[in-house]
């Protein structure tokens, strides 16, 4: 294999490891509506959650931001 390819693979594996460790070491987020703890490995349910973080509570379905605060929809509804 080419040296640059090996270096790229090693860098990618290292970066993925650091990101995984960072995600797993975060403190838990609790839903302010029902109090349920959200999973550490989240699955975004919309584009905003995918880009900026956030959760959809598994207990009550509330839309939470990355810090666990209720996200208010535009228009106040």
How would you sum up this structure in a few lines?
The chain is mostly helical and 77 residues long. The chain has helices at residues 3-25, 47-52, and strands at residues 55-56, 63-64.
Describe what this molecule looks like in 3D.
The chain is mainly alpha-helical and 77 residues long. It has one domain (3-64). Helix content is 38%, strand content 5%. It is built from 2 helices and 2 strands; from the N terminus they run H-H-E-E. It has helices at 3-25, 47-52, and strands spanning 55-56, 63-64. It has a two-stranded antiparallel ribbon. Strand 1 and strand 2 (63-64) form a beta hairpin. The longest helix is centred in the N-terminal third of the chain and has 23 residues, at 3-25. The radius of gyration is 17 Å and the shape is elongated.
In round numbers, the mean pLDDT is 85
Low-confidence stretches: none
> What order do the strands of the largest sheet run in, or round the barrel if closed?
1-2
Q: Measure the end-to-end span.
A: 57 Å
| Structural class by helix and strand composition | mainly alpha
Can you give the helix content as a percent range?
25-40%
Instruction: Choose one word for the global shape.
Output: elongated
Determine the strand fraction and express it as a percent band: 5-15%
- What does the radius of gyration come to? 17 Å
Instruction: Characterize the biggest β-sheet.
Output: 2 strands, antiparallel
Tell how many strands the DSSP assignment holds: 2
What order do the helices and strands follow?
A: HHEE
Count of the separate structural domains? 1
Instruction: Give the count of helical stretches.
Output: 2
